[in-house]
Amino acid sequence: MKWYLFVILGMSVVIIILCILLFLKKKRITELRMALDAYLKTGKSLPYSLREGDLALLQNELSDLVTRLELEKQRAKDVDRKNAEFAADVSHQLKTPLAGLRLYCELDAQNGNPNAEKELRLIEKTEKLVAELLKLQKIRADSFDFVFEDAALEMLTEETFAAFRPLYPQKYFEVTSSAVLRCNRAWLNEAISNIVKNACEHTPEDGQIRAAIEDSDESVTLTLEDNGGGVPAAELPHLFERFYKAKNASPDSTGLGLAITKEIVSKHHGTITAENAGEGLRLTLCFPKIDANVKINV
Fold this sequence. Notes:
This protein is an alpha+beta fold. The chain has helices spanning 2-42, 54-110, 116-140, 153-164, 185-201, 257-267; strands at 149-152, 172-176, 180-183, 208-215, 219-226, 271-277, 280-288. It has a five-stranded mixed sheet with strand order 2-4-5-7-6, covered by helices on one side. It has a two-stranded antiparallel ribbon with strand order 1-3.
């Protein structure tokens, strides 16, 4: 019987040791998961492990990956910053000659030159192009402060519609449903305005622009749809590219409005897609829900 008791005791010790090892492994896995979560939410670096074993190796490989990701992010920011500086330099250099051209055209208009009005329109378009290009590059380079706050998305969308109603009194604007979104009100308003402006320009005089909001546990989705007939399927992948103009684009279009909108949505950690649906074009903006205590890296 004694040998039997020794066997039971030995097996109990082994089981206890295995339980302790499993507990420690589980604890280390939990710590690693929490460290990764902290990096994703706050940007806190992932520490290296001086221990031995597969978990330590995994942690160190993840730490190397995080370091490389941060380096690539910094390189991308440096490129965007240089592009923004270049765009600012070009903008500054163009302001003086454009102002001079505007003055001469205004004098020509006073002297009865029939081409002066066209020349002034071209100058205005160039000034708008330069301003929007500079804005796009500054957004990409994080030159603007994006201060986030909770906002009622339906009210924000309705404010945008209210600005367009006097300009297009025959058109129908509608917002359905509601949700609270943590965002930068001014910039998101501009993003929505760019979409609504395009919709107004590409719909009939009595056209319709509808906004629908969907609220889920993880995200908020804003869908803007018009009845303007949509765009050719081949053009859909290019709508958010810089300087891209659809075949039915307004003559005054710079081709930068939707590119700016995409960058603004990206700064909100969201996505934007376009598709032909129903009688027109549908643009879908999807934003993740962000806790007020989480650090937002834009």
